[in-house]
Amino acid sequence: MDVRGKKVVVVGFGKSGQSAVRLLLVKGANVVVSESKPKEELPPSMVSSLEVQGVVFEAGAHREETLRKADLVVVSPGVPQEVYLPALRAGVPVISELELAWSYLSEDEKKRTVAITGTNGKTTTTAMVSDLFKFAGEKVFTGGNYGIPFSDYVVSNVKVDRIVLEVSSFQLERIETFAPKVGVLLNITPDHLERYRDLKEYAYYKYRLFENQTPEDFAILAKALPYFEDFKGMVKGETLFFGERQEAGVSGYLKNGYAILKPFGEEEVYSLHKFKLLGVHNRLNLLSALLVGRVFGVSKEVGQRLIDNFIGFPHRIEFVGTFGGVHFINDSKATNVDATLQALRGLPSPIILILGGRHKGGSYAPLIPLIKEKVRVLILMGEARWIIADELANLVETYVVEDLPSALAVAFKTAKPGDTVLLSPACSSFDQFKDYAERGEVFRQLVLEYAPKYLGKKEEGVVYH
Fold it and tell me: What pLDDT, on a 0 to 100 scale, did the predictor assign at position 151?
């Protein structure tokens, strides 16, 4: 992609937009930043540094005239589609930062790239795949939707053995040539329905991960994904499926505490007895990571080393501690209903479940069977508490409170030995927190500070399985 001397508008100035600007400057573009936030809310030192290099900032609103007169528009993830519609109507190419960075990769680098998407688990799986290659002695770039933006890798000129990317539906909306050697689609469940017409449109953008691949590439997918029959024509690479059980056409499955792989002939058996992550969904994520490794020839011994040593991330079904026989689990990263379902499936009852935050447009009804089966007390908090109450109240003992401290106060008072207090909100955190991580940190701090006062001191050495 030759952008020398061309007017390129970068829409959005978050991490992805900033990274795109840096890459475009290196490639000689005339860069305009279009940002809805007022200029005084942007990082002042970064803005002044880029202005010295010729970057023009249009802040406070997106100007249609600027978008229509661009040679190229690079859009950041999450920017509403109507913002860049004037550019599309004017025939201006609109691409994501992911596509921009991809266009500057060498053909050899493209053949060493893995991209992972899905509604849930993509960050954890990206980390698993990255660690797998590192255990194999390879130098790895890990980034994309999570961590370091892809364009920063291109700008750095650092050479690695493997590129492992987490990619989102937002990024896949505006690709043209993006085609990783291995693409992984973990799951598709209702999310971002405030942006998409329905689940099928959301699924379409997930399947775009595969549409530019060739038969020499690989597509690793969960068995029985929604809309696979509708979009299987987009899956161009060799297909490897993974699932919970052995069945025809599945290359990786779970059985009695083991992961069984048979992608290219001889069966391989991996012990999961030292695997530290909770929940069946994390074991399925692991299957996909092991299949990625087998595609690239990573040995079974290295795969077992990953299983025995991977510790995961905070805020993803994270065991905080046990106090007076009551266990506390921080699953703040569960920002949609399916993530909460996965947590409930993977944990034993009885559960005191804390739900709520900012509503994302979906229904909470899918939680009903597991709430009836496993949840003893339901605590609803945040902006969405009354919306959730309309669907879930009266199933079990239910409390409606304003915020997380109030929710935990109820949990401390109602908890009994053997209970698990689970924060798995099924909502975004933006009603009261800057992000899910802050919400999870507050949960952890409140538990560590107040649980000893209500329930007794922390029981050291307890491991929750």
Answer: 97
Q: What is the pLDDT of residues 345-368, one digit of tens each?
A: 888 899 999 999 999 988 999 999
Q: Are strands 218-222 and 238-243 parallel, antiparallel or unpaired?
A: parallel
463 part of a folded domain? no
As given in the structure block, the two tokens for residue 448 are: 């560590």
Distance from C-alpha of 401 to C-alpha of 386, rounded to nearest angstrom: 10
Are 123 and 212 in contact by the 8 Å Cβ rule? The answer is no
Contacts for 166 with CB less than 8 Å, ≥ 6 apart: 115, 116, 117, 122, 123, 126, 143, 144, 145, 146, 147
End-to-end CA distance of the chain: 51
Q: Token digits for 306?
A: 């990953």
Q: 279 and 135, same structural domain?
A: yes
Q: CATH number of the domain at 30, please.
A: 3.40.50.720
Rounded Cα distance between 33 and 195, Å, is: 23
Q: Is 138 contained in some domain? A: yes
Domain boundary among 66, 92, 118: 92
pLDDT tens-digit readout, 27-52: 999 999 999 999 999 999 999 999 99
| 64 and 136 inside one domain | no
